[in-house]
Amino acid sequence: MPIRPPHRSGDDPHPDLAPVAFLLGTWRGEGTGEYPTVARFGYAEEVRVGHVGGRFLTYAQRTWAPDTGLPMHAEVGYLRPGGPGRVELVVVQPSGITEVDEGTVVGTSITVSSRAVGHTSTAKEVTAVTRSFVLTGDSLTVSLSMAAVGHPLTGHLTAVLRRTN
Ligand code: HEM
User: Fold this and answer.
1) Which residue, of 72, 114, 144, 154, is most buried by count of CB atoms within 10 Å of its CB?
2) What is the CA(9)–ligand 1 centre distance, in A?
3) What is the CATH architecture assignment of 15-82+102-163?
4) Domain residue spans in the chain?
């Protein structure tokens, strides 16, 4: 029997994704980063959010140095509906860190915090993360705070992105 091709991302998203469907698309923009232990820096960012018909959104982010184009941080993961008004986010990073985050979606504002952060044996110490994705008009503001390398929860990143498609 022939194998059916998979559901296409152009088909309708799963109905349970309606509260987070505002994130679907490719977003690009610029951000700034800081931490008590590092000098302030700028970065360019692209976030792609898609779906394949299942009850989750696909999430892929990459960043690069605005002046040289060289790669900086990147990450991939999945955003899952977590019951009424709730969302779950799992993320894998090339720095050897994984995050299991949960939180809320209110209108076009998502806020999550980590319930678990995993590390490879050579990864830097990160003990907690909070993230937000807030769409205001055309602008998606993406922010991240972390407790890391001995510091309590402190802002690390903020970027403002716009949809490119
Ligand atoms: C937009 C995405 C990100 C960018 C552009 C970025 C960039 C940077 C830069 C430039 C540094 C300083 C130099 C270095 O140690 O490599 C840094 C440090 C660090 N970042 Fe990020 N980062 C991003 C996301 C993240 C995320 C998601 C986490 C963890 C959840 C994270 C955790 C850290 C840690 C632990 C340090 C080291 C602090 C220290 O050793 O003093 N970063 N980041």
Assistant:
1) 114
2) 32
3) Beta Barrel (2.40)
4) 15-82+102-163
